[in-house]
Specification:
Elements: E1 3-4, H1 19-32, E2 50-55, E3 61-66, E4 70-76, E5 80-88, E6 94-99, E7 105-110, E8 114-119, E9 124-130, E10 136-141, E11 148-152, E12 155-159, E13 168-171, E14 176-181, E15 185-190, E16 195-201, H2 206-212, E17 221-224, E18 234-237
Parallel strand pairs: 1-5
Antiparallel strand pairs: 2-3, 3-4, 4-5, 6-7, 7-8, 8-9, 10-11, 11-12, 13-14, 14-15, 15-16, 17-18
Length: 243
């Protein structure tokens, strides 16, 4: 028997033992009209109709969006499923919600004419996109490239969440390229030897780690100090507080 958060038990429904099995059988029959498919969990938590649900590509997580303007995160295992958290911020029905295929992010859109990006670990909004007159209805993420597609009243738009070109600076006299990789490491590429090596980690403290993991916080500019050839000095700037 599956244990599901919000699902009434037999005593609470005034049932005889085995009543939950009867409920599940009725749900199977109502949804599928037979026994070919079996309902494994009943996830109850939204106050109004659920418009979309998506599985995580690797983790045992489900995300859902509904007419109660909420985005809910659920976790499951072999025996039960339960609600992890609720993300609030949309001001109208949530139309679609998906997991980002390569980052720890959730993307949702709504009839409130906005697309919102949420951090999975902190369950907070990290970015919002808006249109003036068009309601959003559906979302899709490219499995390999940093591309998202969103359908709205006037058509569809394809976009990426942040720029793909990293911060870099090229030194013509030494033929060396300094660049930031994965928002974490400053690397140097030597064209003469084709050697690519890590120079320094950009993570300075626990607070820096949490800040740098957010969307849009990647270093934006990198400038090498060419006035002092005896030392390798450079300036790396980002939008993070204190960056």
């Amino acid at each position: 028997k599956k244990t599901v958060r919000g699902m009434p038990n037999e005593s609470g429904m005034g049932m005889e033992p085995g009543g939950n099995n009867a409920v599940m059988s009725r749900v199977n029959a109502d949804l599928f009209g037979g026994t070919d498919a079996v309902v494994k969990y009943l996830l109850e938590g939204h106050d109004r109709g659920v418009n979309w649900a998506s599985f995580h590509h690797t983790l045992p997580l489900i995300i859902s969006g509904a007419d109660d303007r909420q985005v809910k995160l659920w976790r499951m295992n072999e025996t039960k499923a339960w609600e992890v958290d609720t993300m609030r911020g949309h001001t109208n029905n949530v139309s679609c919600v998906i997991f980002h295929p390569r980052r720890d992010l959730i993307i949702s859109n709504s009839e409130d004419r906005s697309i919102r990006v949420w951090d999975i670990s902190r369950r907070v909004g990290v970015q919002t996109f808006r249109r003036e007159h068009d309601r959003f209805w559906i979302l899709a993420a490219h499995p390999e490239h940093n591309l998202l597609a969103a359908g709205h009243d006037s058509g569809m738009l394809v976009f990426n969440l942040e720029r793909e070109r990293p911060a870099y600076d090229f030194q013509t006299n030494t033929r060396e390229l300094y660049y930031v990789k994965d928002e974490r490491y400053l690397r140097r590429y030597e064209y003469s030897t084709s050697e690519d090596s890590v120079q320094v980690s950009l993570r300075r403290s626990s607070s820096s780690v949490q800040a740098s993991s957010g969307l849009g916080n990647a270093p934006r500019t990198l400038v090498v100090n060419t006035l002092n050839p005896a030392e390798v000095n450079m300036l790396v700037c980002s939008d993070v507080d204190g960056g």
